[in-house]
Amino acid sequence: MSRDLSWWNDVVNTCQEIVRIPSPSCSEGDLANFLEAKMKESYYDDVWKDKTGNLIGKFEGKEKLPSIGFSAHLDHVSPGNKSDWEFP
Q: How far apart are CA 83 and CA 2, in angstroms?
């Protein structure tokens, strides 16, 4: 039995795009904008940024069930000297 993994390349490509966008602390705007656009083109019912710049997405449920929250950081530590990278 084979599974349909046609979506996998999209996931991998999106992850590659995410890690290419510099987002050091206090400079996450470009990554937030990229993710906001991706969220708006996917299955979210609503996507917005709050007054402090947090990116929020909402899925409306079809039944009255408990909510699930997910939180993540967009910033990263300095990549250091790229010439030291084994895999740039």
A: 42
**35 close to 74: Cβ distance less than 8 angstroms:** yes
Dihedral sign of CA atoms 13, 15, 18, 20 in order: negative
Q: Is the distance from CB of 45 to CB of 62 less than 8 angstroms?
A: no
CA distance 16 to 30: 15
Q: What value does the CA radius of gyration of the chain take, rounded to a whole number of Å? A: 16
Q: What is the pLDDT of residues 1-17, one digit of tens each?
A: 678 888 899 999 999 99
- At 61-71, the pLDDT tens digits run 888 888 888 88
